[in-house]
Amino acid sequence: MNVKITILVDNYAGDGLSAEHGLALWIEAEDRCILLDTGQGGCLAPNAEKLGIDLSRTDALVLSHGHYDHTGGMSRLIRTAPEMEVFCHPFAVVPRYGMRSGEAKSLGMTCDSLWALDRLSSGRIHWTQEGTVIFPDVGLTGYISRETGYEDTGGAFFLDPELSRPDSIYDDQALWINTPEGVIVCVGCCHAGLINTLNQARIQSGASKLKAVIGGFHLLNADERRLNCTINALQVLSPELIVPCHCTGSRAVEDFEKAFGGRVTAGIAGKTFEF
Fold first, then answer.
1. Domain ranges of the chain
2. What is the model's pLDDT at position 185?
3. Which CATH number applies to 3-274?
4. What radius of gyration do the chain's Cα atoms show?
């Protein structure tokens, strides 16, 4: 299988492109075009146009989870690609909150995104609670089991504006692509933990080897123990390519570069990877 992955939205961007706090990956797998997440919505379409990517060709939109910085461009995308199908976990639509400057801030989908999702016909939306194959050799993890003792959601997340009900972000999921050289795993934020995510994707895909992992690892708040445990586990999995994006954090990227050398390429909008 020929696979091409382009980072469309990230916290950093290449020359002539726009950056925002968010993530979107454009994935071409044989004759299928898949978008993993949409960023906040301001950079998706302009960056795609500058990169020569036609978003109307999108066959499937996969939402890694329901935070605003991954779902904000959904309304416009649904209008752009009217035949596109959407895959997300049912919990992606629940209200959720975080704390910013001592106050509660909504982190969930915007009203526009929720409205766009609600207006989709039942045949175009797929609620992925469990592992799901969406195209030949392309699948979603659905809910990711929390098995490691050192990984968590990566921050203080809540289900209510009073910040009293912790949010475990059960809707977090990843996309995997099987190739003869191993499985490629595309992630949004890894709120279930990077290692939990990779282990589940490898098991579900049946792959014996991890070819690459691309996306946000949400390690910006990770302490030294978690970073060390993550790197040790990743050394066992031994991916050929590691592309940390979005919420990974500069310290984690530096630690990965020290541990894995040239196998690490920091992600920015505009970078493309071919397999």
1. 3-274
2. 98
3. 3.60.15.10
4. 17
